[in-house]
Design goal:
Blueprint lengths: L2 E5 L3 H11 L11 E5 L11 H13 L3 E3 L2 E6 L3 E6 L2 E6 L3 E4 L10 H4 L18 H14 L1
Length: 146
């Protein structure tokens, strides 16, 4: 795809936008124009500051067009209609839209296990979507208590 919209300005959306825009990483598809659309004013706020600075630099270097404070109002066959600062705008020539609009925890097991096992500890993304380091720390803490 030559013209891609990434909808979501968190860590996952920015990593996808960076990968698609970087011809060194994305050798299979080749040069891709990437527009990242997010409802927030700033992007990749869910990343450590040092890593965020590197990600922002890479996206700028690779020409990712970041549209903050924007909402997609309509998806058409080859375009999207966005609203930004009270103004509607149509972005035409869109080949692909990647949805990366956030993560939700999914804990379907802990309630089923209550009463069957002595203790239930919900950790990692089942508790709250975050990075692997938090899940590892939670598992380690609970493991030491057992």
């Amino acid at each position: 795809p030559a013209n891609v919209i990434v909808w979501g300005g968190g860590m996952v959306g920015c990593e996808v936008a960076d990968f698609l825009a970087n011809p060194g990483d994305n050798q299979l598809i080749g040069r891709t124009a990437v527009t990242l659309i997010t409802s927030k004013k700033e992007v990749v706020l869910d990343m450590a500051p040092e890593t965020r600075a590197l990600m922002m630099h890479r996206m700028r270097t690779n020409g990712v067009n970041i549209m903050g404070s924007a909402a997609i109002k309509e998806i058409l066959a080859d375009a999207v209609v966005i609203e930004r600062n009270g103004q509607k705008e149509t972005l035409r020539g869109v080949d692909l839209i990647v949805l990366a609009r956030g993560l939700k925890s999914a804990d379907t097991l802990s309630e089923k296990l209550k009463g069957i096992v002595a203790e239930v500890h919900v950790i990692g993304d089942a508790r709250e979507p975050r990075q692997a380091v938090e899940a590892i720390a939670e598992g380690s803490q609970i493991g030491r208590k057992l």
